[in-house]
Structures are given as structure tokens and as C-alpha cells.
Predict the structure.
Amino acid sequence: MSTPETVAAGEQAVMNLKHGPRSQRVKDRLFRVAMLSCLAIAVITLAALLIQVAVKGAGSLNWDFIQNYGSSFPENAGIRAALLGTLWLMGVCAAFIIPIGVATAIYLEEYADNTRWYNLFIEVNIQNLAAVPSIIYGILGLAFLVRGPFGMGRVVLAGGLTLALLVLPVVIIAAREAIRAVPPSIREGSMALGATQWQTIWKQVLPAAIPGIATGVILALSRAIGETAPLILVGAPIFIAFDPTGLDSAFTVLPLQAFNWISQPQPEFKELAAAAILVLMGVLLLMNAVAIWLRNRYEQKW
Amino acid sequence: MAPGAPSLGATSRRWGEKAIRAGLFGAAAISVLTTIGILVALLRETISFFGEVGIDRFLFDGEWAPLFSPSQYGIWQLINGTFLITGIACLLAIPLGLGSAIYLSEYASPRVRRVFKPVLEVLVGVPTIIFGFFALTLVTPEILQAFLGLDVQIFNALAASIVMAIMILPTIASISEDAMSAVPQGLREGAFGMGASKLQVSTRVVFPAALSGIVAACVLGISRAIGETMIVLIAAGQQPNSGINPTEPFETIAAFIAATGKGDLPTGSTEYQTIFAAGTTLFFLTLIFNAIAIRFVRKYRQVYE
């Protein structure tokens, strides 16, 4: 009965069951390779980009570069003012987004009645704000903070608040998720023991949500740190060769300093720009690492 | 309530609780104030700009040359630049992004996915100044001019588009991968059980089932590209252009705003007001795209148990 032909036919049938007919298999393979090459192209170009910046910038990166102010002589120029300006702006930004962002998230998650039109409006509004291009926030800062009603000029406070408004939706969305992840049984238990709603939130919900909120805040700040476009409108138009001294001080920040150097025609300045970007990326990497560590270390499974 | 039963309600009026609630509502209202602030800032100056220049010149002037004399205010040139650069970027980024997403969601082993997914998410947050630098110092001189031998100017739209594609790629890949992973395993198993190959499952089962999320990812990428400032400002040359030849310099709405807002234009001057008129255009352009995305997601979203 089992002639070689029937055996071969049987094996073919088994193969077909396992992998489909031959033409299908070939197509399948090709598709797989095509999809893999998409991912490879994406990752390789992004890697090339980062490596190129690292290679160009590494030569200029030394202690003098960190210590010196900007200068019209590339060999003396450094990022001291930009680094301090970045720290000042992040301080202002954090002081604004942490209380406002968390309070908004608490309101929307714990108090707001979702059937009311004004609560729905606030939610839709936050989603829309998250998608507004950053340069528009620059216009907002220019019209209201730098000039117009507040008229504070191109100073630290104006820059910090502009960035804060820009990343506020990020904090709100992350904080809401963290608060939502706290199971209702915790709240019910607390309320059953006679705690008021605010006592429940302050003593039970918030402590449990802090890791998630902190991760969101760090991610928001790391977005703010890399923003250049709005600060072109709100930041200092000239080289800054002094440390920022307070909220009303003129400032520059790392990406703005890098942009200034990129705009110079001499190639030496391009290398300085690469070095400044390298420092910026180092700071960002550190912040992201902290955020990931926080998430893994304190994440609670309920 | 039975007579004589103790009241289970609050025993005092709890003014503190009410005050806290009001305070929290105040914080939530700040986001609404931000929107109102943006609209007021944009529209106030835009309206006085239209009063001085006229909306017809804004729409129909042949060129955008507000700083020259005689000045021209045809926003069309900036919109043209914005759409050209965004269009080329999407042509490159959408296929590559969706391909990466399909690979990660359908083909990659869990280990590969665990490595690449967070990498994509981190790459979404790379500051765009880096991409601008990359376009100007590597893509134009090394890749376009030296390697491909193209006759491009040192500032050109092509390099900006290519780099913008790289910028929005992680956004598109990451969000559409989320959508594809969310398609329930039962659908795939059903298709495999009918004898479908992996290719058929990916393209005819998973892709349509995740379509709403995929479209949302693409539109989000497009709206990021439309509003992107730094890449265009650095690499595309800040020159309004009505053509469609990407080897020439172009300017987009966002790049114009940054280039003009950099200086200290006197408040109330027509030059100052052009920033706001351009800003209003950009704001509503992105608003339209986001509205499309939200509608699309609502209409085609499949809910699985």
C-alpha cells in the first residue's frame, strides 16, 4: 500500500497542515522579512542619528565646556549659563505642574460627575491641549507672559510657566491613570471607617498613587527639558554670559544654546552644538532611567 | 428611613471638604483657562491683522513676504510648505511605522518585544533639535549630496522631510503596535484554525481589527509633523516657496512663527501680528486633524470582551 508516491503525498499534506502550501510559505517568509526590515530601518536610522551626535560632540565635551559661558570664540565657549537656565526652568515648571496637575487629576477622578457638561468639557479640553503644537504655547507665552497683561519680559518665570502649561496635560493624564489604578475597595474601606472623602484621598489614595504620579512628572519634565520652539519666542534672543539669579533673570537653556550654535556658519560651532545636545541627552537618559526604576520599584499589583 | 433610626449622613456641614472640592475644581479650570488664553492671544491680534491687511490678501496674495516692501501676505505659500514636508514625511513614516508595528506585534518573540517596545517609547521623547541637527549636518551633505549625488541645496525640504519621518516613526509604530496587540488572541486562533497563514492573519484579520487605533496613530503622527518647528527651521531654509520641488528651500507655518518671533518686533506692528495670524492658521489646521482622528476612532472602534 505505502508506495513512495503515497508517502511523499502524505508528507506534503502534513507540511501543508503545518505551514500552508508552498506559495503561501514563500509569501509569508517575504512578508516577515519586509516587516523586519521596516523595524531594522527605523532602529538603524535612529541609532545612526544618536551615534552621529555622540561622535561629533565627544571631542568638545570636557570640564571647561561645562564651566564656561557662551562665547563668540568656539574654543572658549561653554554651556554654564544654559545648564543653570535649564535647572531654573525645570524648578519653576515642577513647582507649577505638580500641585496643579495632581489637583486636576484628583478632581477629575474622585469628584467630577461625568454626566455634567462642564466636567466633560474639561476632559475633552485636556485631550485637545495635549495635541496643540508647542510653538503655539510659545505664542501664548509671548502674548501674555513676556508682553501684554503680565509683561514680565523674556525671563525665567515666563519660560518656566510656558513650559509648565505645555506639559501640564501629560502630568494630568499620567496622574489620572495612577489614581484610577488604586482599587475602589481601598476607598470604601477608608470611608466605612468614617473617614471623609478628602481624608480618604489624602491618606489612602494619594500615597498609593505616588509612584505613578512621580513617573508622570519626570516624563513631563523630560519633555519640557528638550523643548526648543516655544522658548525661541519666550527665551533670551542673545548670548547670555551670566548665571541666572532669580525668577526675573534673563536666561538661555541647553536646546536653545544648541540651536544658536547650529545657526552659526562655522563648523566649530556645529561641534559645540553636538556637545550641548550630548549633555542634554545625558540628562534625559538619566531622567528616563529614574522614571523606569520608580515604576518597577514601587509599582503595586492589587 | 425607619423612625428613630440613627442618621447615617454627615453630622456636620463639612465646610472644609467643600472648600477642598472647590480648590480642586479651580486647578482643573486652569486647563480651560489655558485654552481660552491661547484663543484670545491668537484671535485678538489676528483680527486686528485682518483689519489692517484684509483677509482677502491673507488668503489670495501670491507670496508670503511680510517683512519685505511692498509686503505680501499669502499664507498659501506657508501652507504649501507645511503640507509638502508633512506629506513626504508621512509617505516614508507610515509604511515603515506600520511595518515595524506588525513585526513587533505579530512576528517578534516576547523577548524582542520587551526590548524594542520601551526603546520606541523613549525615542518618542527625543528632543527635536537633535533631528534638526541631524538633517543639516548629516542627511543633506553626507547622504543626499555625497552618497546619493542629488542636486540639493544646503537648505532643502527633502532632508527636513526625511528626518521628520524618522521623528514621527516611533509615535506611529508604538501606538499602532498597542492597537494590534489589543486585538484578542481568539480572532487570530480562529483564522489559523481555518488554515490562514501568518501573512493572511496579519493583513486581513489583525490589521482591519486594529484599524481605528492605526488611523489614530497616523493622524497623531501627521499632526506632530504639521506642528514641528525645529527641524524645518534648521534644515529647510526659511524661504516661502509655492513649488513642489523638495530639493529647494521651503518654509512652514511653524518655522515662520519661530523665525519671526525670535527678534524683538514692536508689539502691535503688522510684522508682530503676522506671527499670530500664522499661529491661528496652524492651530486650526491641527485642530481639524485631531477632530478627524477622534471621530474616526469613535466610529470604527471595535470593543472586544
